[in-house]
Structures are given as structure tokens and as C-alpha cells.
Amino acid sequence: MRWLSLVLILAASPGWALSCLRPDVARAYAQAEASEDVWIVVTGTLGFDERRLPAGKSPDPEGADIPARLTGQSLTPQGFTRPFDTPVTLRIACFGPWCGGARDGMPYLAFLRKEAGGHVAIAGPCGSLLFPQPTKAQLEQARRCMAGEACEASKGRR
After folding, report:
1. Domains of the chain (ranges plus CATH)?
2. I want to staple 27 with a disulfide (CB 3.0 to 4.6 A). Which of 77, 93, 95, 153 is the partner?
């Protein structure tokens, strides 16, 4: 009976669960703005080969890099007004058994980091930089943040 209690205690420990903040456009914008890296914000359709997604934990701590293309508009102070049709790297990040993901052909609001090889879309298990099927409210929040208007993140957890 003691071993059963120990197993139940260990199974309930925080090490077995992934706790994420609710994805939030204003929070993602603030993180990108505070970063020393260069970021752009794009809304559009992401295209890639889904067969290249990792099935579980990625063997590379940096994640799995998948060639992709993002077609849509990038954010300017006036809104999503600049055409964007560019190859990107879809970086699938994993934390233990939890991996981020994406869907081919789905519209996204994406925060893209500029790297030496081009733009990188990061899909982590908590989904904080890729927003699938963005709502009008999410797109408007990104525009407000870019324009220097109200840009406050929510504080809720998933």
C-alpha cells in the first residue's frame, strides 16, 4: 500500500504536468519588443509538410526545424497592410514529452523572429507565438500594440 501512495504522490507532482499561461497577443508582443532579437508580426496561411512534425520529444533541444511558407500580410502601424509571401522555418519546440504543433493550410497570427537564415515561426507546447485561426480581436490587439495604444496582457492560465 505504501508504494501505491508513493506512486500517486509522484504522479501528482508538478514535474508531470505542463503549466502554461493562456496564449495572449499582447504578452507575445511585449516579449518580442523586450527581446534583443528582431521580430515581425504576420497574419496569413502557413504551408508545410505535416509529416515532418515530431511525433514526441524532439531529439534536438532546439526543436525540429521544418521548411514552410507563410502567405498573408505583415503588421505596420496602420494594421496588417504589407504583403508577405516568404519562406519561413517552422521551429517545433519540445519540453519533455510536450511538443508544439501547427497545421498545414491553417491561418495564423505569427510572431516571427529574424535569424541569419530568414524568418522563424516558433511553435512551443504552450502556443505563445503562433495563434491559429486568429480572431478579429486578436488582430486588433496586435495593431493596437504596434500603434502604441492599449496593449495589456491577460493573466490567466490554461
Report:
1. 36-146 (2.40.50)
2. 153
